[in-house]
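Re: [help] complex structure
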Amino acid sequence: MSESRKVAPKVALVATILAVAFIVVLVIASPESQTDADSPLLGNPAPAVVTTTIEDETFDLARRKGSWVVLNFFNSTCVPCRAEHPELLAFADAQAKSAQPAELYTVINDDSDGAVKAYFDEHGGSWPKLRDDNGTIAVAFGVARVPETWIVDPNGFVRLRIAGKLTEGLLDEQLAMLQGQS
Amino acid sequence: MTKSARRILWVVAAVVAVVFLVVGSTRTSGPRTQQDRIDAISKRLACPTCQGESIYVSRAPAAESVRAEIARQVSSAQRTDDEIIAYIEDRFGSSVLLVPRSDGLDAVIWILPVTLGILGVAGLGFLFVRWRREQVSTDTSSPSRRRVVVVAGLVIVAVGVGWFVANSAGQRLPGQSSSGGIEDSTASLLSQARQLNFSDPQQSIELYSQVLELNPDNVEALTYRSWLVALVAREAADDVKLLAVATSLEGLQRAIEIDPRYADAHCFMGIVKFRFAGDAQGARDALDVCEANDPPAEVAGFVDSIRAEVDAALGE
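Output below.
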């Protein structure tokens, strides 16, 4: 038997083992987290948001420069949205007493004015609720699932994205941290 | 068939293949309607909340929103198909691309299969030639087992590499996008200018001026440039200061005329009138309008700090 004919099966065996090991690593590797809070928008100017509230007041995000702005994407039938509502109420209360209060806005995602109004009438929350007809704002921010919460700094830069339900105190902590950095 | 006839056949086959490729890649199917464009773009994007569905077929709310945005951008006729896809990718990340890009790392997904195919055919051809020679020169009892092992090894390596490329290319995490960035130079300039309002007002004025060159009616740029002009002139000689204040008030008035509900312009009008023009009554009128229009926190802070002084100057 020639030397090359002895080597070829060994090479094939090593290659096979490497390929199988590689495939196993790919299969068992952790998938991307569903609460990944990364976004290409972070550190960039916030998308233009010009809309109206459910009280028919005009809203232009660019006009809120000078304030920290928190946008919470919400749907009244979404379970995590409802579950995080007490956190938003606590956040709004805390901001009302703050020396540097952030402005909180709900962005209505695929829901009716009436349903949102009824929900807030029942559960509280007097901050403005913004219409998002055709999901323009959601697409501009890359929001695929609600709830999501975004923080825009007073210079108009997107500073934080929280995907999924807010946990207790998370929003206050993150905002305080960002305000401390500024 | 003679050797030369076989060669001619190969050449003819190659020419036919090239002609088909050239015609296929350059032919056009005539002008497209807006709906054609919407459909074509929708088929190239994945639904962000579904598994394996395009925007075109999905009826998920997120897909509906993206499709509506595509329709809006197509009807506005301001972006090409590729630019609209880049807009969506900039927001949702590269995982929404059903067709990987042909540049950067994603180009590998186009190049690698062709390269692997060529290498695989060449490798198998080389092996078969060698085995035939060995069979002629030696009397081997059973070479088939080795052949199976070698071929299986090649196939598994090729599949493994292909799988790796298919799973990695075109699925970079959000934030790792290498395409374009956010296409809004005005918004970017305004945000940069704001960051420099206090640390480098001269540079900030320059940036606001650049915005006004792009859009002379930009209310934010008009307002903040006017305010900063008054601020930086504080230490200047009286004649320069007078000119600066006049320019500032003129700019603020223009901003108010363009958007009477922009609180910041009224607020700075009040501040400039009181601090630099000595007009307490005019300042109070402007501050009243400012507060009625719900100024942002930072500007409201400036107004709060001056309000008592204005009232005192008016004897109240």
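Chain B has three domains: 31-99, 104-168, 185-313.
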